[in-house]
Each structure stands twice: as structure tokens, then as C-alpha cells.
């Protein structure tokens, strides 16, 4: 019982330690064998939650919010702009492997909407210019 | 203790950081050092101050000068003029319409609030337990374990009239009593910090701005119901909150306020954090418990309620962050203090997050029973750009819309229910005339369709059907009878869904039909969107059999 309690955390740990921020089949099977879960159970859990990925992702994960407040603040245009700037689509990874673009549930930054988070860093009051500036700073820092 | 001439409180809440607050703070530190003022000016990183619209913001004491929308390049002038020469830099300060520059406590947004839950947010450094203790922190826990029996603590909470702040408003004292009475050697206290309602972020602010109040509230609960283990289930979207919570738990352990033999008594209480992974349904209490157990976050049937059979099948007390944050105050100041705020049946305060088309957005804490008008116009400063108020969405995807005709109705659990809305977690999104109600309703349904866990049919299939009807209407393909179909589907989903997510999912649609039926009719009959939001297809012939809906229904 003690072990089962930590399944979500174990999955987070595996994903965080992975260079491509995902849960590979190999790792999941290893985890199952180690704790005596069926791989199907672990797969069932990891695919239930949106923050786990079974596909490899980029170095930085951009989560852009498109919930109510952000929706009213033109989040759609920001998403289109990001897609154009990164030359990828929501759910996709850039060619250089630097960014994966995802939609997020409400980030709780409704007063500074539209908002997004890159890895653990929040960015609010987004405009097209500000997005360019932010993305460029990550590109330079790679 | 070191005495400083100036205290510069910089908001380090998530929203100010996201607006560039860290860069300003770094620049300010450089300037202070350059002028050798390190021993005269103390910079304090506080939790969220509430007026997120004004961020990044800084309050300078002793006088309470309010600097807003700060940029790194402003730091030099503030240090050279204000900190060195005592001349406030007015162009960075908040200015009233009459031209005055009020101090923090004179700004209506702050002056009209009553703070219990947010009492320390924006005042103390959340990463320093000493600052929490200096503001009477942990006196409630000390009083509970030192002077009161567990039964007396439960009685105090019952007498306070506090009701759950997570949505449904269940009497907190009764929940505590049921858990205390449940049989079992092992019990748990769980905090629901999986705040997922779009538009609500008060729990985030408490977690980031005053984590010790949650820890203290949960420890008191553990003592009252007989639990020695607590879990905080926090969503993974709040990394800063998790970091500050971890730090706070560590500090509380070191100070003997968590762990074995708290304050030298027989009472022991361990507290751990469990991190979610992005599933809205986990905010529902039984789904949350499944998730802590390491399973898919699917809700369970109630009864049995968590009070008798909760986490791992054992008696569990589960409250949300805002509810727990009230507890230390109720215990230390007594239920009569709390009872004097609010109105009959709805005691205390409620935190609302004000967003959308309103002049000052941010977090506000007000006594229950206040009217929507006071919130939007007196505290929020009204609607920007001279536009007209249309409606306020309260309670997120589970709530409803309050139209302008109902602005004077007091905000409490019962009145909101009669209006077809719910208190929910307190998300309040203000809309002006440029918003389309059908579009908003569709937007929320889309949310529910995405977030439905799929376990029960009414929620999984019913919300999708409703969504498809709304989708047609917003594209100019609505047919007569659609409104009635939405109403009857909504009723069935409310009555037959397994958990709160499904049961409340039709609320935004039903309440917008109730107050804005004309707008639905305009879409359906005239193929017009009065607000000009929906792109209507220019077809005059209405198809009797909606293709989209039928096709998808069979999948």
C-alpha cells in the first residue's frame, strides 16, 4: 500500500529525469516489474493525466492557457502566434527539439491573462511582441 | 533585531512574477547596494497582494506608498529620489481620478475588504516562519492542543458557522464532527489544493503567500478529528506553491509544530504533499482520494462519504485550502469573532478572484452577503472603456451567470442557488456587452467535455450532445426546439451524473438560457449573434437533421 501511494510521484520522477520529458515504455515496464504492478495499470494511470506524455518532448515545455479569462483576452491569437513563431502546432515539438507546445488547464493567472508557463516559469500579459522576446531569450540561452 | 528605516514589500505572487516582478526586484537590489543602503532599506518578498492588475507592485513602508506596474528601469529613480531623498516618485504610483496619490490602505480596492483568509498575504514573507508567528501564527494550534479537548475544537468550528469554501458549502463543523465520531484507529486529514476552476486562484495565493496558515489549520483539524497524518493534494500547475509549501512544512517540523509530540503534548501530526498531474476531475473529493492512492482519478459513489470511508477506505476529513485557512483565526479568536462577520447562515468572508472586463482585477476578500454591485463597482472600479455590464459568471464551469437585473442580490449560498448559480470556489468573471452568452456557455461545455473522466454515461455522452447543439447554434445552424432540448438534456445530466462535475456541468447553459433566452433565439431564428462574437454561416435554409450531432453521437 505504501508503494502504491506514490505511483503518481514515481511517474513524475521518471518523467522529470528523462531528457525528453516523457515516460518511455521501457521505463514504465521497469517500474511495473519493480513494484509488481501490471504494466496495463500503470499505462492506465499515466494516460489518465494530461501532464504525463508517452511521446518524447522538447527541452522546454510551453503550456499556454486557453481557459475562460485567457479566452476573453484573445488567447487564441497568442496560440496562433506561437504556432507561427515556433513553426509547429499545439501538441508538436519544434524541429530543433527545443520546445514542445501544449495547451494547459487554467494556470490561475487570470488577472494577467493571456498567460503561459515555460517549464516552471509563469509569463503573463502576453502580447505577440512579448512572446517573441521570451522565446528568443530561451533560444539564446540554449 | 535590526531596525530598518524603510521596508519595501515587493509582491512575489505568481502573477506579479509572471509580469516581470523578479527583474524589477533584482534591479532594485543593485541600486540599493550601489548607494550603500543595505542597512537602511529592507526588501521583503511577500505573497500575493491581490491587485494583480497593478503588478509588478511594491508597497513602501512606513507610510504605505503604492508603486505599480514597475519595470526594472524604474528602480534607479525610486532609490535615488525616494529612498535617498525622501521624494516619492509619483509617476510610478497609483493615482486616483481626483489626482491624489493615496496610500495602500486608502485605495478603495484594499480599503473595502475584510481579510481573514488573506490576512497575511502580501504582508509577510511566506518563506519565513518567524514572520508568520509574529502575526499570531500557531497561537490557534497552541490553544487547541494546550487548552481545549478535541470535542471543544469541533464545537468551536460548529459554532462559527463556517461552511466549506470549495464549492457546495457543506457545514465544516458537521463534517469535522462526523469524522471525529467515525470508528477507526487510523484517520486522515486531506487538503484539496487541486484548484482547477478556470478563473479561480485564491487557493494558489494562500499556498504561495501564507502556507503556514494551511499547515496550522490542518494540524488543528488532525487534533480535532483524531488523525495523525495529513496530505495536501496540490495540482502540478502550481510549482511555486509546491516549493513554498515544502519549505514551510520543513520549517514547521524544525519548530516542533509538526511531527511527534507537538508543543510537548501527546498529539502527533505528519504532513505530506501529493502532487497531481493535470486532471480537473481530481478536484472532486472522491476522485482526489483515488489519485492520492495512485489510481486513475475517477470519482466513487457516495455514500459512503469520506468521513466514514475515505482515503484507503479509512475515515478522512477533506476540506479545501480556503476552508482550512479560516481555522487558525476561528480557534485563536473564538467562534464569536467569526460569527459576527457575514450574515445568518453564511458566516465569515469569501475570497473572490475578479477577472474579465473590470477595471481592477485581482483577489478580494469580502464578508458574505455583500452584493455583486459592490464587488464590481465599488471594489473593482466598474467596467472599463465606458462599456455596459452584461453579466458576471460565478462558480466557473459549475456555476452560472448573474445578469444586470440581479446585481443587488446578496451573495450567499442560498441566494446564488435560487439564481441558478453556485458560490463554487469563487471565480468571478465579469463580462461587458461584447461577450456572447451562447459562446460563453459553449466554451464551458467544451471544458466539461474535455475534463469529463468518462466513468459515467450522462456526463461523458450528455455533455457532448449539449456541446454539439451549442456548436451548431453558434454557427448559425440552430433549429427550433434546440433550447428545449438543451434544457431537458441538462436536467437529466444534473439528476443522473455520478459526481459533482457532471451534476453541475449544465449550470452555465441552463442559467444563460434563463437570463439570456433572447440571445439564444437571435442565434437560432435570425441567425444573428447580437454581440458579434460568433461567426454565423450565411445559410438561410435550415437543415432538419443536424449532421454534426448525429454523426458524432454514434461514435
Describe the structure.
- The complex is a heterodimer of chains A (142) and B (555).
- Chain A is of the alpha+beta class and 142 residues long.
- In chain A, 44% of the residues lie in helices and 13% in strands.
- The longest helix of chain A is centred in the C-terminal third of the chain and has 13 residues, at 128-140.
- The longest helix of chain B is centred in the C-terminal third of the chain and has 19 residues, at 507-525.
- Chain B contains 22 helices and 15 strands.
- Chain B has a five-stranded mixed sheet, sandwiched between helices. A four-stranded mixed sheet of chain B has the order 2-1-3-4, with helices on one face.
- The interface between A and B is large, with 39 and 57 residues.
What attributes does this structure have?
heterodimer, A: 4-stranded mixed beta sheet, 6 helices, disordered N terminus, B: 555 residues, Glutaredoxin, Rossmann fold, Ubiquitin-like (UB roll), 5-stranded mixed beta sheet, 15 strands, 41% helix, globular, disordered C terminus
Amino acid at each position: 500500500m505504501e508503494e502504491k501511494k506514490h505511483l503518481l510521484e514515481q511517474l513524475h520522477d521518471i518523467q522529470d529525469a528523462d531528457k525528453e520529458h516523457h515516460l518511455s515504455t521501457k521505463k514504465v515496464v521497469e517500474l511495473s516489474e519493480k513494484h509488481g504492478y501490471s504494466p496495463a495499470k500503470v499505462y492506465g494511470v499515466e494516460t489518465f493525466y494530461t501532464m504525463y506524455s508517452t511521446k518524447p518532448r522538447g527541452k522546454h515545455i510551453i503550456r499556454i492557457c486557453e481557459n475562460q479569462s485567457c479566452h476573453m483576452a484573445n488567447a487564441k491569437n497568442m496560440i496562433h502566434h506561437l504556432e507561427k513563431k515556433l513553426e509547429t502546432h499545439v501538441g508538436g515539438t519544434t524541429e530543433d527539439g527545443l520546445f514542445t507546445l501544449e495547451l494547459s488547464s487554467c494556470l490561475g493567472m487570470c488577472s494577467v491573462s493571456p498567460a503561459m508557463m515555460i517549464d516552471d516559469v509563469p509569463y503573463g500579459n502576453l502580447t505577440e511582441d512579448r512572446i517573441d522576446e521570451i522565446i528568443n531569450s530561451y533560444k539564446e540561452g540554449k | 533585531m535590526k531596525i530598518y528605516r524603510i521596508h519595501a514589500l515587493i509582491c512575489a505572487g505568481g502573477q506579479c512574477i509572471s509580469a516581470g516582478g523578479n527583474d524589477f526586484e533584482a534591479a532594485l537590489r543593485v541600486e540599493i547596494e550601489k548607494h550603500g543602503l543595505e542597512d537602511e532599506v529592507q526588501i521583503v518578498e511577500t505573497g500575493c497582494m491581490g491587485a494583480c492588475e497593478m503588478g509588478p507592485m511594491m508597497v513602501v513602508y512606513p507610510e504605505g506608498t503604492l508603486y505599480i506596474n514597475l519595470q526594472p528601469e524604474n528602480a534607479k529613480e525610486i532609490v535615488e529620489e525616494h529612498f535617498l531623498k525622501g521624494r516619492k516618485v509619483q509617476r510610478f504610483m497609483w493615482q486616483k481620478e481626483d489626482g491624489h496619490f493615496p496610500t495602500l490602505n486608502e485605495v478603495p480596492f484594499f480599503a473595502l475588504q475584510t481579510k481573514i483568509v488573506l490576512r497575511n498575504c502580501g504582508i509577510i514573507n511566506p518563506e519565513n516562519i518567524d514572520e508568520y508567528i509574529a502575526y499570531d501564527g500557531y497561537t490557534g494550534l497552541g490553544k487547541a492542543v494546550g487548552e481545549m479537548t478535541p470535542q471543544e475544537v469541533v464545537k468551536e468550528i460548529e459554532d462559527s458557522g463556517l461552511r466549506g469554501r470549495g464549492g457546495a458549502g457543506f457545514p465544516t463543523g458537521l463534517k469535522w464532527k462526523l469524522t471525529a465520531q467515525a470508528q477507526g484507529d487510523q484517520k486522515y486529514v486531506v487538503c484539496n489544493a487541486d484548484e482547477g476552476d478556470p478563473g479561480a486562484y485564491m487557493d494558489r495565493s494562500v499556498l504561495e503567500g501564507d502556507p503556514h496558515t494551511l499547515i496550522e489549520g490542518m494540524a488543528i483539524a488532525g487534533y480535532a478529528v483524531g488523525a495523525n497524518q495529513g496530505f495536501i493534494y496540490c495540482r502540478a500547475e502550481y510549482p511555486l506553491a509546491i516549493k513554498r509549501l515544502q519549505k514551510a512544512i520543513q520549517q514547521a517540523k524544525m519548530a516542533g509544530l509538526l511531527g511527534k509530540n507537538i508543543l510537548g503534548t501527546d498529539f502527533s501530526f505528519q504532513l505530506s504533499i501529493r502532487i497531481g498531474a493535470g486532471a480537473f476531475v481530481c478536484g472532486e473529493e472522491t476522485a482526489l482520494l483515488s489519485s492520492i492512492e495512485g489510481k486513475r482519478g475517477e470519482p466513487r459513489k457516495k455514500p459512503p462519504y469520506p468521513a466514514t470511508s475515505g482515503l484507503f477506505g479509512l475515515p478522512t476529513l477533506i476540506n479545501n485550502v480556503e476552508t482550512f485557512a479560516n481555522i487558525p483565526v476561528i480557534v485563536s479568536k473564538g467562534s464569536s469573532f467569526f460569527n459576527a462577520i457575514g450574515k445568518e447562515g453564511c458566516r465569515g468572508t469569501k475570497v473572490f478572484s475578479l477577472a474579465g472586463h473590470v477595471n481592477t482585477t485581482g483577489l478580494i476578500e469580502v464578508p458574505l452577503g455583500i452584493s455583486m454591485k459592490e464587488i464590481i463597482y465599488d471594489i473593482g472600479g466598474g467596467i472599463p472603456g465606458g462599456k455596459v455590464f452584461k453579466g458576471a459568471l460565478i462558480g466557473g464551469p459549475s456555476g452560472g451567470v448573474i445578469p444586470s437585473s440581479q446585481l443587488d442580490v446578496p451573495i450567499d449560498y442560498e441566494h446564488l442557488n435560487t439564481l441558478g448559480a453556485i458560490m463554487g470556489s469563487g471565480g468571478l468573471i465579469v463580462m461587458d456587452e461584447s461577450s456572447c452568452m451562447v459562446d460563453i456557455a459553449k466554451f464551458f461545455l467544451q471544458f466539461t467535455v474535455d475534463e469529463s473522466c468518462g466513468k459515467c454515461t450522462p456526463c461523458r455522452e450528455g455533455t457532448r450532445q449539449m456541446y454539439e447543439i451549442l456548436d451548431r447554434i453558434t454557427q448559425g445552424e440552430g433549429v427550433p426546439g434546440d433550447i428545449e432540448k438543451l434544457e431537458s438534456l441538462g436536467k437529466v445530466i444534473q439528476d443522473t451524473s455520478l459526481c459533482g462535475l457532471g451534476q453541475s456541468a449544465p449550470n452555465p447553459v441552463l442559467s444563460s438560457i434563463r437570463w439570456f433566452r433572447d440571445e439564444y433565439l437571435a442565434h437560432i431564428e435570425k441567425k444573428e449573434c447580437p454581440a458579434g462574437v460568433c461567426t454565423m454561416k450565411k445559410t438561410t435554409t435550415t437543415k432538419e437533421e443536424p449532421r454534426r450531432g448525429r454523426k458524432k453521437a454514434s461514435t
